[in-house]
Amino acid sequence: MGLTTIPNISIKAIAACVPKKEESNFDYSLLTESEQKLLVKTTGIEKRRVASESLCTSDMCFESAEKIIEELNINRAEIDVLILVSQTIDYFLPATSIILQDRLKLSKNTVAFDIVLGCSGYVYGLSVISSLMSSGNFKKGLLLVGDKSTFSLSKEDKSTYPLFGDAGTATYLEYDPEAIPIDFNLQSDGSGYDAIIIPDGATRSPWTPESDEMIDLGVGIKRSKRNLWLDGIEVFNFSLREAPPNVKELLSYNNTDIEDYDYYLFHQANKLMNESIRKKLKITPEKVPYSLQNFGNTSSGSIPLTMVTELGDKLGKPTNLLLSAFGVGLSWASAAIKNAEIKCLPLIEVD
Amino acid sequence: MEDIFEFIKKIEFEIDEIDEGMLQPETNYREMEGWSSMLGLIFIALIDTEYDVTINGEELINCATIQDLYDVVKAKKQ
Predict the structure, then answer these.
(1) Distance, C-alpha A73 to centroid of its chain
(2) What is chain B written as a DSSP string?
């Protein structure tokens, strides 16, 4: 089991950045009016933010990180670790985190690397940066997390286009021997690798002219092999099957109960799915915030974005948080953060 | 497990898009007006919450009628 406990880490601040441009699913013309209503009711997703061609994930993460550095008056030279979790990087190579080290004017002693994960990425990223910093050799770290998911969507695929939005976030962590250890439960199942996939363009299936040909499935789904393919029902079932036991295992591992947590932050993919998970875990509705109605599924950025937009001030005083994220990979994870005191900065919007 | 008429009642009650009396055991739900994969998700969520049974995509496609769906749920429940 992927259960682990990491001491000495304090999450100090979170910032999130989204594109200014907003689209509404009530304006998505591939769906009839009744389909639009059913989609919004089922997924909970009404509006999404869509990045312009020139705006990358790294730009949104950069803005978020800059805001934290300025607001908390952090000495850039003291940041030891910079990790980017994203599936929409600037280039095939080099790693985008290294470019960000320079853009953020951090020291050349910075440990910088990328992690390629989506939905589960925030929790996984937290576990990796916390592990690195736990021994005290690295005292200050930035975890940048987000995706420009709209980059790979086919506008003519009604099974994906209305679901995703773009966001880039930053989380600032410090080594803190007084902090309550953070517990994690991390899991993977690669047998479901093709449930969410962009089939062509990397090395397993390199780009050919055929990769860009639009395939018409005839049910409102027209997409190429460079687009994101999503098997909604399989992912839905996977999440219902795996997320609740993963959380339960974590709670029994750290001897806590459902009632011990003030908020449950679920990856924001689908409201019906999250509500089913919530009911299975017998969590009261007011403990489960949602940002997906305004921002859609923002991939790995969804949990920090929800903290910023939905919890804001509430996280400024000691709060027990349970994070649970699940999706592409398939990969899923949860984290129990007790006595969290996190400064959430106001949402940043860029062109 | 409860009988098929209770099963139908639950679906009609929980799913706003389906009115009371719309479903019979022999109704082919995928040929119903307004059927979509979105309603498929609603069916799956309802069955999961009410019966603690997970219906996968393949099973949903292989079922034609409400009776078929009820039989799958019942078999999985045992």
Answers:
(1) 26
(2) ---HHHHHHHHHHH-TTS-TT---TT-BGGGSTT--HHHHHHHHHHHHHHH--PPPHHHHHH--BHHHHHHHHHHHH-
User: What are the boundaries of each domain within chain A?
Assistant: 1-351
- CATH T-level topology, domain A1-351: Peroxisomal Thiolase; Chain A, domain 1 (3.40.47)
> What pLDDT, on the 0 to 100 scale, is given for residue A285?
97
**Structure confidence by residue, pLDDT tens digits, A275-293:** 999 999 999 999 999 999 9
Which residue of the set A25, A246, A274, A297 is catalytic?
A: A297
pLDDT at residue A300 in the model: 98
Domains of chain B and any CATH numbers: 4-77 (1.10.1200.10)
Among A30, A191, A233, the residue to mutate for chain B (most B Cβ within 10 A): A233
Report pLDDT digits (tens) over A22-31. 999 999 999 9
pLDDT at position B21, please?
Answer: 85
Cα distance between residue A243 and residue A332, in whole Å = 7
Known catalytic residue at A17: no
Is it the case that residue A1 has pLDDT exceeding 80? no
